Amino acid sequence: MAGNNGSQIAFGAATSTLFKIDIKEKLKCEARKKGHACENIARMVLTHCRHRLCYDCLLDKVIFALEKKFPPRCAISRCANTLSWSEIQAMACHTNQFARIHELAQKQSIAFVIPCEKRPNEMEILIECFLYSNETNLKTIVLPKLIVITDAITAIVQLLRVSNTKSLSSIHAYLRKNCNDKRGKYKYEKVPTDAKSTIKEAGWGDNKVTLVIDEDRQIARLR
After folding, report:
1. Torsion angle, CA of 36/37/43/49, rounded to 10 degrees?
2. What residues does 191 pair with on adjacent strands?
3. How far is residue 1's CA from residue 22's CA, in Å, rounded to a whole number?
4. Alpha carbon of 51 to those of 21, 34, 46, 72, 124: distances in Å?
5. Residue 57: which domain range?
6. What does the alpha-carbon distance between residue 180 and residue 117 come to, in Å, rounded to a whole number?
7. CA dist., res. 74 & res. 24, Å (int)
8. Can you tell me the mean pLDDT for 125-138?
């Protein structure tokens, strides 16, 4: 909506999926970090330049541009493609930086309407995730229920920025559920990181779950 106060972009539940990559394709992000190729799986193909990018690289580029009051561009070096607001919207709905983007956009007379929570549709599930012993690092991600669990864990590990020196097989993942017995407030159900079943087949839940990534296997030692 254009007006004297700039443009208003709605980040709602009906976010376009036009620019997303099917997670099963497992195509590498084409950006570079500090001179090295990014190891993340690409999540979007930009409309005009057709570069494949992960959300992390695209987010870094967008925030840097907004901080410098430049038009956000593709994260590939020397690519002059300016991102559309639809592309920024599709990316932002899969990060935890709504507030930061909102703050920067306000300084440029661009107002963002941001929901208090990303709401999944009936074919998706909202996953709250954090590293064990660091719940303050809690992040959220919306994934399709038909995603294979291995791919879901991979996406969550990337979101939480777990060290890339750790293999997926060396990391433990748990679904945290409320517990009513005297042993503690929560119980942890181990999730096989090599599971080939989907989230729906595994019965994770209908709308929202909490997943704990235990990169140092601390939970196993407590049992």
Report:
1. 100
2. 173
3. 30
4. 12, 19, 6, 15, 26
5. 2-113
6. 27
7. 23
8. 84
Query: What are the DSSP calls for 9-26, one per residue?
Result: EE--TT---TTBPPGGG-
User: What's the CA gap between 151 and 146, in Å, rounded?
Assistant: 11
Calpha distance 24→131 (Å, rounded): 25
Number of C-alpha atoms within 13 angstroms, CB side, residue 38? 24
**From CA 70, how far away is CA 63, in angstroms rounded?**
10
pLDDT digits (tens, 9 = 90+) for 137-170: 788 888 889 999 998 898 888 888 887 778 888 8
Structure tokens at 50: 């057709």
Please check whether residue 87 is in contact with residue 169, taking contact to mean a CB–CB distance below 8 angstroms: no
Helices (H), the chain: 55-68, 85-92, 98-106, 149-159, 199-202, 218-222
Residues 30 and 101 in one domain: yes
Tell me if residue 132 falls in helix, strand or coil: coil
Residue 148, domain CATH: 3.10.20.90
Provide the token pair at 136. 């303050």
Classify the phi-psi angles of 145: left when phi > 0, otherwise alpha if psi is within -120 to 50, otherwise beta: alpha
CA distance 190 to 219: 10
One domain, residues 146 and 206: yes
pLDDT digits (tens, 9 = 90+) for 197-214: 999 999 998 888 999 999
Last residue of a domain, one of 113, 142, 171: 113
